[in-house]
Amino acid sequence: MGLTNLAGVLCGRQEIELRKATRIENFIYIWKVANSANMSFSDAREDMRNARKEYDITFRTYYEKKVWKVSDEDRRKLGRKYNRYAKQLEEITGMTYGQAIETLKSAHSKYGVSAKDYVMYSFFDMDEEEQAQRAEKLSKKERNIEKIRAKNVRTVMKETGWSEAETIEEMNEARERCGAYYKNYCEYRFWELHPKTQDTYFNNSHINRLIRKYVTTPEKLIYFKNKRLFNENFSEFLGRRWTTSKDIDAEKLKETFSGCDKVMYKPVDLSRGKGIRVFELNDENLEDVAEEMRRLPSGVVEEFITQHPALADFSKGASVNTIRIMTILDNSKCYIPYVVIRLGHGKKPLDHMHFGGVIAPVDPDTGVINHDPAGRDGTLYEKHPASGLVAKGFQIPYWDEVKKMVRRASKRFPSVGFLGWDVAITDKGPVIVEANTYPSAASVQMPFISEHKGVRPMFDRFLA
After folding, report:
1. 24, 94, 175, 392 from 172: Cα distances, Å
2. For 455, how many CA atoms within 13 A lie in the half-sphere containing its CB?
3. Strand-pair category, 262-267 with 277-280
4. Which residue has the higher pLDDT, 81 or 200?
């Protein structure tokens, strides 16, 4: 066994043992709290989980500080996360620290949202109506997760003929062994693979490990999640005009986008193309466009990117075909372990696989597409399904400039050392579209599904 493979095996085993040890330790602290506080085990576990979610109080701290006896105010003082996000809110908005604390307390009382959720879901950029709607969606999040898990189980049952108990046992075994989530089990068709092959697949648990290792100040993630803050801090890399949609009117549209015939609206806090709208502009419709934008959730409005014609040809000009570049910042050195290009299907202005696009891996050194693109189900296409063009062997223009740009951008917030950058190529050079704090594991693994080839070993040096 080679050193790289050995490192991957040891790394995986350590992760499994760590998860087991953590669960055992947590179980012990729940049991101790239940006995000390005269609570049922389930009540103790629920309160300890809430304290961890709301205030970043560990199970150990909960027991040692007898947190079941203290008020919410004292829990905030004990919690690292609450104070951390209050300081972040102070930095973003210009509030005083005291005002930030009161804002977070008020939001928790009014909507039940945690300090982390208030900041990370950009409540500070929303009016009261938007805040209430966002809080309602967050309250449904846990229920939706359970529904998705149940749907994944039903999918595997249908494909395999296994009983529900057998299916859950197999999926849980894969989760314990290699960290694959139920979603990964389904999209990677793990029931067709030997466990040793499953272990080589790149899945969501590996993304989580990279985040834990290279993102040392999680509160800084808001500068990437919030599109307004991102554009403010990375303006030199955007290569396009933009403004916020708040209080937008015809005059602001005309002043900002003079000579521009198309703009794109993006909600301030959504990802994966959700909520994006494209608007045509002309002298007669500015007031109507502005009125429609004002009815949308808070967001940013950007000049539509005109991409390099060689890339536009793949999707017949319908979508801007972006390159996802994964960067890892380790000891001030920026590594690019993986690159893919997304090619739209020629009918919608979005290139995501969720909207019918295809995805292909790119050689990080040369910028050449080195594999046939794959669809969301892993089907490979020798020719692009919309244009008929061959993607494999295509040289992405301005590749040296692309690498220099993302390496510079990755050092803007050095404590956020793991990101997925979306880059577009124009006829004048590369521009950054946005950065993703949780880049998709499937976009890395999916092109190799039909070959039953795992790509996790490419990341073993960073996961160790």
Report:
1. 17, 46, 5, 37
2. 20
3. antiparallel
4. 200
